[in-house]
Design goal:
The chain is mostly helical. The protein is built from six helices and two strands; from the N terminus they run ββαααααα.
Amino acid sequence: MKPNIVALSSSSGVAPAKRREAERSEADRSGAGATPDARAAVSPARPDPEVVVDAKRRTFTAEYKRRVLAAADAAAGHGGIGALLRREGLYSSHLVTWRRERQAGILKGLTPRTRGPKPTRSPQDEEIRQLREANQRLTEELRKAEIVIDVQKKVAALLEDRKPSSGSKEPR
């Protein structure tokens, strides 16, 4: 039986390599040699693998933490805790931290904490600050208005001095 041989053309001028029909080059296998339309017809459209979703910190409720700790304590056999962690999408450090909080008797510690700096001002202090800023702004506006009024008075006085006397009429 004679094998089917396909001659491949080459643009480099070197004698083309001969391959059997069942053998394909890397470009043929990956579809690099095919046109984009031909590749789209051969393989279904693949979704873009780039993930651009913003990361969001997870928070766990106290009830969820207690439930997971109870399940971890009840997990028997080899790999039971690992299976629980994989199923819940948790890390072993979560269990360590939650157990430490539970052992210390911090019931409040099992509830999620707010992150970031704590407010140091009371609501009354904040209101006083806003009122002082508004007072300062209004005082500045009043000062500018008084300057405008003063200028208007001076302009009116100058125009009054230049005004001809009311007794004599001058032709225009």
